[in-house]
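W.,

You were right to be curious about this one. When I first looked at the sequence I had no strong expectations either way, so I just let the prediction run and decided to look at it fresh. Below is the sequence, 234 residues in total, followed by the output.
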Amino acid sequence: MTISKRFKKAVDGLDPEKMYSVEDAVKMVKTRATAKFDETIEIAINLGVDPRHADQMVRGVVSLPNGTGRKLRVAVFAKGAKADEALKAGADIVGAEDLAEKVQKGEIDFERCIATPDMMGIVGRLGKVLGPRGLMPNPKVGTVTMDVTTAVKDAKGGAVEFRVEKAGVVQAGVGKASFEEKALIENVRIFIDSVMKARPQGAKGTYMKKISISSTMGPGVKVALASVGIQAGA
């Protein structure tokens, strides 16, 4: 594997084993994001859970105070007045049976999917298509709701859904390299706090094991748990 000069420069001065405060970690990641595009700042959290067990599943949604810097295309399954409300709120795609047909054909031109409860009979049949992509509407994260205005505006304004993967890792984008350090730090802290609050009843022992931050093309920087208010073994 060939390592680029840019990446070599990015890892220069970075101790891969050292735990940094969240402030220092954000600064190091931000200054090392030197790609020719506005890199996404990503967080990865290793949790002490086994998501194969229903009582250890971790999922939720968090509204980042400074947004994500990413423009999401939002689809809403709704009819009548609720469809009009979704369009007014800024939804990119609104439909019912017609939208379901497009999704069934693989025409998925959106990154967030919202549905009113009365549409779940239609949306439920799309589980095999939307589920693997993490797009299935779910009342637990506010994407099955009658309040489509709030749901659409949250999705457009920086709401981030998170769900633990098979290996017990939660990953998400928490901003862009162009953000001010203060904004990134606030987003990181809010995200970590939300994952902590989503601790399932079935989680035993140490819940939050490791946290690291990176940019799209940059190296990962480990975050000291104590710097985000997490005690050892918590």
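Here's what jumped out at me. The radius of gyration is 19 Å. And, maybe more interesting for your project: The first helix runs from residue 5 to 11.

Coffee later to discuss?

I.
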